[in-house]
Write a structure and sequence with these properties.
Blueprint lengths: L4 E4 L3 H11 L6 E6 L10 E6 L2 E7 L9 E5 L3 H13 L3 E8 L7 E7 L5 E7 L4
Parallel strand pairs: 1-4, 5-8
Antiparallel strand pairs: 2-3, 3-4, 6-7, 7-8
Helix pairs in contact: 1-2
C-alpha cells in the first residue's frame, strides 16, 4: 500500500490555488505546509489529505515535468463530476470528461484533467455499470 506520493511543480502558488479548489469536492484539503527553511533549502512542500493525514504532496525546488498520473478515489459519480467541474474552474485543462471507462472495468467512472504543469489528475469511482 502506498502511504503518500508527491511531485514537483513549477509554480507552487499557482498549483496551490489549483489543488485547493480541484480537490475540495473529494474532501481533500491542505493539511501541512513545509517551508524551504524547514527542508534546509530543498524546496517548499504542501501536503494535502484528509482526517489529519497528508498523502498527496506538491513541492518546489526541483524541475517540474509533465507526465505524472494520480488518481483520487471518489465516493460516487456525482463527486467525480464535481471534481472535474472544480478542476476546470480552477484552470485545469480537460483530459477526459466524466464518464464510464468500460475498457478498465464495467463500473469504472472517471474524469481527467491536466494540472498547471500538465500532470494528469483523475477522480474515479468504482461502482456498478450503468
Amino acid at each position: 500500500m502506498i502511504d503518500h506520493i508527491g511531485f514537483p511543480v513549477s509554480d507552487l502558488a499557482r498549483s496551490r490555488a489549483f489543488y485547493d479548489r480541484a480537490l475540495a469536492p473529494l474532501g481533500i484539503e491542505l493539511l501541512m505546509e513545509v517551508t524551504e527553511q524547514m527542508t534546509g533549502g530543498h524546496g517548499a512542500h504542501l501536503g494535502y489529505g484528509r482526517d489529519g493525514k497528508p498523502f498527496f504532496w506538491i513541492g518546489s525546488g526541483r524541475s517540474a515535468g509533465a507526465g505524472t498520473h494520480v488518481a483520487f478515489a471518489a465516493s460516487d459519480r456525482a463527486t467525480v463530476d464535481a471534481f472535474h467541474a472544480a478542476a476546470l474552474a480552477a484552470g485545469g485543462r480537460d483530459n477526459g470528461a466524466p464518464g464510464l471507462r468500460p475498457e478498465y472495468h464495467p463500473g469504472y467512472y472517471g474524469a481527467f484533467v491536466l494540472d498547471p504543469d500538465g500532470n494528469n489528475i483523475e477522480a474515479v469511482h468504482h461502482g456498478e455499470p450503468a
